[in-house]
Design a protein that fits this description.
Shape: globular
Strand order of the largest sheet: 6-5-4-1-7
Strand content: 5-15%
CATH topology of the largest domain: Creatine Amidinohydrolase
Distance between the termini: 32 Å
Number of strands: 18
Largest sheet: 5 strands, mixed
Structural class: alpha+beta
Radius of gyration: 24 Å
CATH superfamily of the largest domain: Creatinase/methionine aminopeptidase superfamily
Amino acid sequence: MSVLPPLQGPEVFTARRRRLAARLGSVPAAVFAGDLVPRNYAANIYPYRAHSHFLYLTGIHWPGAVLLGEGDEWEIFAAPPAPDDALWVGPSPSWESLAAACGVQVIRPLADLPDALVASGGAAAIATLPAIHARSRVLQASLLGRPWGLHDESLHGAIALEAHDISLAEAMIALRLIHDDAAVELLRGSAEVARVGHLAGMAATAPGKRESEVRAAIEHEFTARGCAPAYGSIVSVSGEILHNEHSHQVMRAGDLLLVDARADLHGWASDVTRTWPVSGSFSPTQRAMYDLVLQANLDAIDKVRPGARYRDVHLQACRTLTRGLVDEGILRGEVDGLVERGAHALFFPHGVGHLLGLDVHDMEDLGDRAGYAPGRQRSGQFGLGYLRLDRDLAAGMVVTIEPGLYLVPAILDDPALCGGFDRDGTLNRERLAAFADVRGIRIEDDVRCTADAPEVLTLAIPKTADAISGLVGGNGDRPRPD
């Protein structure tokens, strides 16, 4: 594939590498970009995106490349273009111009990397991080003796690292937790692209259409602005399926459509969810639950302040939801006691959000090492155990705030989860039955912690029930996408 220079200037990446080197001291680091991944046959590849740590430090999507250096001295090693690349993929910039564009000293052939590693002190002296792509892992193992197994996709625990690799992981986490001005610029841009996409999705919604038509309208706007979905878009009337991969159903009047669609702008992600009625009108029960989730969203956002523990932000959303469920007669009991027992997780089983940056779930390739502060670990309680982030917030961090309320059969039909709440009368199933047309509601915003009030990067995407109702199906004077 043709390699393009970074969108932003070399000073951005030079400054990031300098800050990284200051944390590492005299330890050199090797950061792998990841390689092409084929499907079906070798020439049929999935769309390529560089591994985020490499992208953060160089701004370049370069299959198979490796960044190596320390202090102010950094080099990129890459495979030279094939003789017929210009025929098939067009010309690429010269290596000299690419080096200047991302501020490294030189770009050298990948075949020179073994000797460069020896000159840097040998494999034992080099810090690195486990690459996502299998071919890069083979290269890492052969060069550095790091025989990592398959990438750990679980929610729990930290990726096993040793020696200098731990130092690199901690340094990278510290840098990427607090976004610099260049990152914030692209995060705001990604949020704006998401805004246009969601407005298009609202306008395309109508009874009798398929979910896929709404998804196409959203992703059309992403593509038109040079973006891709940052994650597989969720566009579904089955909102109780939290990570629904399918958009094949016909939408009907009375359905709620849950849309979790986010844009990738030059590697930087937004992550936005809105839920709207297919017909443009909420039923009374849908409106009651929608307003409850919205209040939980607003209450949690208000707690995004420097020094606040993110776990407490999550618990604030839990308390707001629980209070509303008690007011509606669905749960019985005292709010704080119900939250302590985890009763809210029958309807809100996931965490209130996660880190956001170069990835939708930023730095989760490093497991809980990134999401959980030292000395903190996941709860064993159902619901709270799915919380992806438990750090104290600081100015410059960007997180999602995404409370939801779902009627999930896999939870509500499970005696192990519901039995105690059924037996003591906490869960009022008779009252719950009145809300059967509420399958799933989630409202998600991207929020930047600042020294003052939180900055909601996705504030321009309508989320009040009245505002959304006026936009569905092209109703009303909807905001122009541009």
